[in-house]
Amino acid sequence: MAVTMHGVVVILIFYVTVSAGTEEMYSNYELVSEEEPIDEGPRLDYNDPTWCHPLSLANGELSCVSPRGRSYSGTLGTRCEMTCDRGYKLVGKSSVHCLANRRWSGTAFCRQIRCRVLHLNPHGRYTCSQGFVVDSRCDYTCKAGYRIIGQHSRTCQPDGSWSNNEPVCTDDDPPKIRCPMSRAKYADPGALTAKVAWDPPVATDTADKAPEVILVGQEPNTAFKEGSTVVRYKVYDLARNRAGCKFIVRVVVRRCEVLNPPLHGYLSCSSDTNNYGAVCEYHCEGGHERTGTSSRVCQFNHSWSGAPAECRQMEFRTNVKTVSALMDQFYEKRRLLIVSTPSLMNQEYRLQNLMIQKSRCGLDLRHVTVIELLGSAPQERGRIKTKPLHPGVIEGLRQAFRISRTYFSMLILDKNGVDRERFITPMSSDELFAYIDDFLLDEEERDRLEIHRDFCV
Known about the structure:
The protein is mainly beta. The protein contains 6 helices and 30 strands.
């Protein structure tokens, strides 16, 4: 558009720029004289059939539609649909159109579809017609001695997967295995078991170099119990053909004849009481002491060492003149219950003496000897049962354990001669036994007491 003002021509020029499908308009004003020619710039022909460069799609097909007809495939507004040939996959846009900026709205290409590389069969091979692309067929074969389990071929499919499952090559010949010879062994001394060793068998197979050998049972170099134990081995090859073998491990326990406990005594034996290496110790019940060997051992020749021991009634010498000579006889053998009274007529003593007489059996089971210190000088006396004690022993006991003559008292000494408890009033047999059982007996004595508890009833 031109406008004339006082001899000056004003020319209004519009520049139109098209970019990425968006139109932007800029205006610029210039003053020129009427005599200068007007430069109108390049003219764009939107009907140009080569507005966008020609499209091509390797390994695929284009289907384009133009506003001006199918033959005008490059004009503005043309839309093209893209598809790939069999065995190819479209990557990018499946539909593009020609824009005003002379470019297509997107790009795409056809990528060849490939199946994954097939695993190599350790006992076979395969050959493929076209590698790992669509419609390629791979045929499997096995080594000599093996046969195919499954389909003999697989084909690469358009979705990138292989048809069928992967076949395997397997052999029908089971492996061979030979077990060690059966064996017998004597139990170890003092035990009911024996450690038995052997070399594991080696298996062979026509196809596999090292078939898997599995032990079913107890490991070698471990302790086997008395009697017969079956040990088995089994072996599998890669085709799961199976073979097996077995042998017997026999453990013999050498035994002596069963020992009889001594009269008025008992035995405590290690291990199984009469097997080779077992040790049996002799023990005597309360009021008795052992004579002879303290223990015997079951020997390899089925006989016991030494001679049997006996339990005889304890004889204590009361004619000794010192307290130490008396106490040495009881050391580690008997406990002492010392009862002191100012006179035989003392009511507390008489009550206590009555309860002691009734509980003599229970005191013997607990290895307790009663010592009585009766009266005051010059009529003082001491006794163990009916046997009198020397005056020097009586005085020694009172001095050593601080026992008063003026009132009734009672104290308990353990097997080491240690003062463990004192009483100044009479104790019932149940109270006395409860204290001894809880505080003076060891575990073995408690077990023996449970066995003979009814003996005194």
